[in-house]
Amino acid sequence: MTQSTKLIRSRRFLPLFVTQLLGAFNDNLFKNAMVLFVVYSVYNSEAAEARFSALASLIFVAPFFLFSALAGQLADMRDKAAIIRVIKLCEIAIMLVGGLGLAMAWKGIALHTVAIPLLLLAVFAMGVHSTFFGPIKYAILPQHLEDDEVLAGTGLVEAGTYIAVLAGTIVAGWISVDAAAIGVIVVAVIGYVSGRSVPAAPPMGKVEPLDKHLLRAPVRLVRATMKDKRIFLAVGSISFFWAIGTILFIQFPPLAKNILLAAKEVASLFLVIFSIGVAIGSVVINALLKGKVSARYSPVSVIAMGLFLLAFELVCENWPPYSGPKELMDVATFMVQPMAIPLMLTLLGVAVAGGMFVVPLYAFLTTFVEKSQTARTIAANNIVNSGAMVVGAGVAMALSQFGMPLVKQLLVVAGSCLASAWLGYRLYRAEKLAG
């Protein structure tokens, strides 16, 4: 029996794994159902569609900057399992609001005045939900797992997250908006039930007073965390990855609709391929490193990601014109296009390389600090990541506003991989010097 199989069968890991998987699934079912509906059914402009997609991303990541410091403190100072139960109960209420917004949008009731604002409110609330859950799902691993199990556990959590992203994205692309409205509520309820089975995880160190200041607390937390050079470099590398990922996820729906002339199911397929690739990369890097936490393969992985992005841009640039019916291509029609397979393979390569790059970096954050500080380290990482994602979304909005074609924006993303490679190389050097 492999280590990963043993963990999946273990009560100290399985309830957490299922709970975070359902949460990631629900996030993506709701967000993608909303974005795909608005892009394909409300707007009819490439720039407007890209702006809305970027706005939704900005609203989702804003809570990570505002509340991550408090989330990290709570996770280190309180029982993590008890916090999970509260978070998952709140998810039910959030999805009741989000489900109502989806139902109103489907019926066309007060679309711009009530339905879309309700949807964006639910997106913000789910961002808050993820902000408080994020530090726990990684920080609880060193508490429940043995030291030689942490990398495998981190890889499973990452792979599970992207499998859930995959499933949520598939479902969002193929079911109706009214079915999504019901589905997000049902999944939230199941997630709450599974969360109640997570074993207790009391504080590991001294319980200190909470700093609830929304500006002072994150600044202090990031400053304190970044004193360790390896943590600083790992956080910087992860942040570049998420800035790149944010721009790509913003671009996929309008790119599929306007450049490839493909229906929303094809846009969903792109997100699916990306999610599968990251999950594959998570498993591959764990096998290559044989359980050792190391940034050895990070620089070459992110360089490979940039090269695959250049290839993806080249395929999109040379995508042949579609001479069929005026309707957008469905998946079956898209799959028989001459360059469909190269397009999907290059996208898969981007994602596999990205997964190989980012998973060991998350393991760094949970193994190179005291267990009593793990959640706050993850929270500091989330604060910096959210800033990078805001920058990524802002860059995507600015590039669209200034009229840069979507395909050419991929070149900007590919160039950013060089900065990530440099940080990954410096991290590996620091790792070797530390012995």
Automatic annotation (TrEMBL):
Keywords: Cell membrane, Membrane, Transmembrane, Transmembrane helix, Transport. It is a multi-pass membrane protein. It is found in: Cell membrane. The chain crosses the membrane at residues 50-70, 82-103, 109-129, 150-168, 174-194, 231-254, 266-288, 300-320, 340-365, 377-400, 406-425. The keyword Transmembrane applies. One of its GO terms (cellular component) is plasma membrane. SUPFAM superfamilies: MFS general substrate transporter. InterPro entries: MFS, MFS_trans_sf. One of its GO terms (molecular function) is transmembrane transporter activity. Its main location: membrane. This is MFS transporter. It comes from Novosphingobium aureum.
